[in-house]
Amino acid sequence: MPETEYRLSPKAINDLQNIWDYLSPLSERAADVLIENIHKKITSALDFPMQRSPRPKLGPKARILIEGQYVIVCEPADYGLFVVTVVHGRRRPDDWPKHTKT
């Protein structure tokens, strides 16, 4: 079986940094754990990237993962998963970033 990986869009990298920056003044440990859990959630989806329901309003191949209060928008790719963005679940889906070129 070929090795799979995930790649983060520049937007997703920025999202994770913003999440950490927001939470770390309250608790660096909690911020670290959340970011680690988001990465674990993405890694756990690598074996079956097509398993989740398509979300065509977010992009032609978009799928979502949930970690706590955060929604991870990703797309299956030939190498595994492409993470488009990570948003707080209270944000309206209409305001979430759309498909980014893989």
> Quick one: CATH superfamily?
RelE-like
CATH arch. level architecture: 2-Layer Sandwich
Write down the CATH topology.
YaeB-like fold
Low-confidence stretches: none
Helicity range: 25-40%
In the CATH scheme, the class would be Alpha Beta
Q: What is the count of structural domains?
A: 1
**Spatial ordering of strands, largest sheet:** 1-4-3-2
Please describe the biggest sheet, giving its number of strands, its sense, and whether it closes into a barrel.
4 strands, mixed
Number of strands: 4
Query: Any idea what the shape is?
Result: globular
Percent of residues in beta strands: 25-35%
Rg of Cα set: 13 Å
**Whole-number mean pLDDT:** 84
The H-and-E topology, N to C, reads as: EHHEEE
Q: Report how far the terminal alpha carbons are from each other.
A: 22 Å
- What structural class results from the helix and strand content? alpha+beta
Key features?
102 residues; alpha+beta; YaeB-like fold; four-stranded mixed beta sheet; 4 strands
Outline the structure in words.
The protein has a four-stranded mixed beta sheet with strand order 1-4-3-2. A hairpin with a 2-residue loop joins strand 3 and strand 4. Helix content is 30%, strand content 25%. It is α+β, with helices and mostly antiparallel strands. It has two helices and four strands, in the order E-H-H-E-E-E. The chain has a single domain, classed as 2-Layer Sandwich (YaeB-like fold), CATH 3.30.2310. It is globular, with a radius of gyration of 13 Å.
